[in-house]
């Protein structure tokens, strides 16, 4: 009986160790999280100016969207933002998407990735895995993104990397 209990305890510890390894963020995970946090801090600076009366909320949102649309890192890093209702604000200048609801968008596996973005963003930020095409391509590829809510504008901001 003792041997069985000891074996179960050892197997349980191994399983916990394995799950921690799977959940440990990779360097790419940390990069996209840090980049999104930096983009949100840029939006926070704009929001602070708006709160001090230097511009209207609409002007602040326009400035934030314009800067976010052009903001890049590395060779392929970009940002997007959707309202908490799922309406796209910024997606690398795709005028056919910006201003339209993406709430019902799903990937090839049936994942409602916008709904996941919104849920993770509102919960304090998090990672979402889904399939999405690279810019100017039509074939979806595996992607992992980090999203974070910017409450003053009601936006969920994200960035990711293709696997």
Number of helices: 4
Under CATH, the homologous superfamily reads PAS domain
Q: Estimate what percentage of residues fall within beta strands.
A: 15-25%
Uncertain regions spanning at least 5 consecutive residues? 1-21
Which percent bin holds the helix content?
A: 40-55%
CATH architecture designation: 2-Layer Sandwich
CATH topology: Beta-Lactamase
The separation of the N and C termini measures 46 Å
* Spatial shape: globular
How many runs of DSSP E, i.e. beta strands?
A: 5
Content-based structural category: alpha+beta
Q: Give the mean pLDDT.
A: 89
Rg over C-alpha atoms, rounded to the nearest angstrom? 19 Å
Strand order of the largest sheet: 2-1-5-4-3
Number of domains: 1
Tell me about the biggest sheet?
5 strands, antiparallel
Oligomer class: single chain
Question: What is the helix/strand order?
Answer: HHHEEHEEE
The CATH class turns out to be Alpha Beta
What does this structure look like?
With 163 residues, the protein is of the alpha+beta class. The chain has one domain (25-162): Beta-Lactamase (2-Layer Sandwich), CATH 3.30.450.20. 44% of the residues lie in helices and 21% in strands. The protein has four helices and five strands. The chain has helices at 2-23, 27-51, 57-70, 113-122, and strands spanning 80-83, 88-91, 126-133, 140-150, 155-162. Strand 4 and strand 5 (155-162) form a beta hairpin. The radius of gyration is 19 Å and the shape is globular. Residues 1-21 have low confidence and may be disordered.
């Amino acid at each position: 009986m003792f041997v069985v209990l000891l074996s179960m305890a050892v197997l349980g510890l191994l399983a916990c160790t394995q799950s921690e390894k799977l959940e440990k963020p990779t360097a790419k995970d940390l990069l996209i999280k840090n980049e999104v946090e930096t983009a949100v801090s840029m939006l926070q600076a704009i929001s602070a100016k708006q709160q001090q009366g230097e511009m209207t909320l609409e002007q602040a949102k326009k400035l934030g969207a314009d800067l976010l649309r052009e903001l890049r890192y590395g060779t392929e890093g970009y940002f997007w933002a959707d309202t908490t209702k799922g309406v796209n604000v910024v997606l690398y200048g795709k005028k056919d998407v910006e201003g339209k609801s993406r709430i019902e968008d799903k990937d090839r596996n049936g994942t409602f990735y916008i709904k996941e973005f919104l849920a993770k963003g509102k919960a304090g930020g998090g990672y979402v895995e889904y399939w999405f095409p690279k810019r100017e391509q039509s074939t979806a590829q595996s992607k992992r993104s980090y999203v974070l809510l910017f409450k003053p504008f009601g936006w969920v901001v994200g960035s990711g990397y293709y696997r």
